[in-house]
Amino acid sequence: MLGDMFKQLRVLLAIALIVASFGCGGGGTGPSTGEVTPPLGTLRADIDGSSRELVATAIRDITNDILTIGGEDAGFTVILALQAPAVVGTRSLPDPAVLGAYAGFETYEEAGWAAYGAYGSGTVTIKSLTSTAVSGTFSFTLLPYGTATGTKVISNGSFNAPLVRD
Questions:
Q1: How many domains does the chain have?
Q2: How far is CA 29 from CA 144, 147, 151, in A?
Q3: Could you tell me whether strands 133-146 and 121-129 are parallel, antiparallel, or unpaired per DSSP bridges?
Q4: In which domain, by residue range, is 71 found?
Q5: 166 residues of the chain, pLDDT tens digit each
């Protein structure tokens, strides 16, 4: 179940990154090539003690009240999905009052770790949310699913990402 949910969220992130790369507003042109620079943000975190910076974007689905923030790097994806009113503030996971609140980390080899329902724990703080961007912080202790083993600790996380759809 967690693997299927993560795959769906990863597809949404991929679509958002593709849409953003085709100049969904806010981009400029490169200095020498004239190529459009996509309006992408950053997601930074210490993952098991190693500092990483990922290309990030966010999707806000107002109809279903879901805010998905994702970052991708060579070899893995980090996704935060909050199915709750998208407002400034802190959310803890697991949160029995928020069905669908999810944080995950998956490698391209299909190993995954998550905080969802009774799995894992952590917090996401949305510091700023506008019709064009979202920023905040996060930290998690994620538990394995699929072929993964052990826990995955994500600390000192921050994100600043454009909203692809609002």
A1: 1
A2: 42, 42, 42
A3: antiparallel
A4: 2-162
A5: 555 554 554 544 444 443 343 333 344 444 444 444 446 899 999 999 999 898 888 888 777 777 888 888 877 778 777 656 678 888 888 776 666 677 888 877 778 888 887 778 988 899 999 888 999 999 999 999 888 899 999 999 999 998 876 4
